[in-house]
Amino acid sequence: MLADDEGFLYPVVDNKICTSCKNCSLICPFQKEGSYKLELNPRFYMVRHKSAEVLKQSTSGGAFTAFSDSILEAGGVVYGVVFDENLRVIHARAETAKQRDKMRMSKYVQSDLGDTYKQVKDDLNAGKTIFFTGTPCQTAGIRAMFMNNHNADKLILCDLICHSIPSPLVWEDYKTLLENEAGGKITHVQFRNKRYDWSRDNSNKGFTYRITGEETLREDDRFYQLFILENCIARPSCHRCQFTDIKRASDLTIADYWGIEKFAPSLYDSRGVSVVLINTLKGQKLLDKSIHSIFFEERPSHECISQQKRLSEPGTESSSRAEFWKVYRENGLIAALKFVRLTSNI
Predict the structure, then answer these.
(1) Burial of 111: CB neighbours in 10 Å, binned 0-12, 13-18, 19+
(2) Are residues 134 and 67 part of one domain?
(3) How far is CA 233 from CA 6, 224, 290, 340, in A?
(4) Which of 30, 60, 201, 288 could form a disulfide with 256 if both were Cys (CB 3.0 to 4.6 A apart)?
């Protein structure tokens, strides 16, 4: 996997060892008809963890913690996204709650899967139950790779309702910019810190970071502006995403339950509420195993579909995307940020 000039990873074939078997293209979710998506319509649930501390440490309602706890308590393993020691976003493996806790909270950067496929294969062959979480395309890739494994019934896939994937290159430059401005090294980062009440209006706020030697969290909104508001730094394929509907390639889907305050005010909680799509019997069984730690209620599908645009269509490419990247390549991130602020009248 090699990065292009926007920082996105793409597969590159080593022609010295390739045997031209074509297995990579035959199972690729982007070339496979149907992209491994399931035919059944999902069931929609409101889910909220019973623990106030879990809600505080979760982006929305703590559904991921509840489900992964059930897996870990049964001796299984969890795969999810963490920050490494350099605050790069990578996929990691967890056998304990402490390791899993690093996977909480959203990381709005494309994760590097590294040798995750090999680890999943080893765990499956060892008969371990696996809870793999990732973007829809990542979970489809895992399904494609292991759907015929003799222990495939032990693999539980959980995807997200994904806005899009922002550039890892811009993320690296953004961290450097913050460190240069602060005159110190970043030691902690969190997207959507819950210093703000959980709500759609607040979902673009709360990017916080800590500098070495400081106790106070700093806050900044410029990465959000590039990613969410202006949509300049998304991976190009996200604008042609094949996974923006209710037909999923996963057993469960997790996201924020936007609009719950309108549809069922009594279920709203300012600490966070999750929507969970149950896509398979395996997903339903995991929900059933987790009911001791959550409040949950089945809800009509139209509520979530009306509020989550990525369940009906991919995001639209920004009209200024090409110009943003031209400025970025020629003059760097600071100049590109100025360009965005000028063109967006902010």
Answers:
(1) buried
(2) yes
(3) 8, 10, 37, 11
(4) 60
182 by Cβ neighbours in 10 Å (0-12 / 13-18 / 19+) ranks as middle
Does residue 127 sit in the same domain as residue 252?
yes
Question: How far is 317 from 106, CA to CA, in rounded Å?
Answer: 22
Q: Around Cβ 16, how many Cβ atoms within 10 Å?
A: 5
Show the tokens assigned to 294: 């959550």
Q: Are residues 339 and 307 in the same domain?
A: no
Residues 139 and 285 in one domain: yes
CA atoms of 270 and 61, how far apart (whole Å): 10
Residues 321 and 220 in one domain: yes
Establish if 21 belongs to a structural domain. Answer: no
Q: What is the DSSP string of 247-301?
A: --SSSEEEEE-TTHHHH-GGG--TT--EEEEE-SHHHHHHHHHTGGGEEEEEE-H
3-state secondary structure of 243: coil
Q: Are residues 185 and 213 in the same domain?
A: yes
Could you list the residue range(s) of the whole structural domain that residue 187 is in?
A: 168-233+316-343
Asked if the structure places residue 29 within a domain, the reply is no
Residue 13 located in a structural domain: no
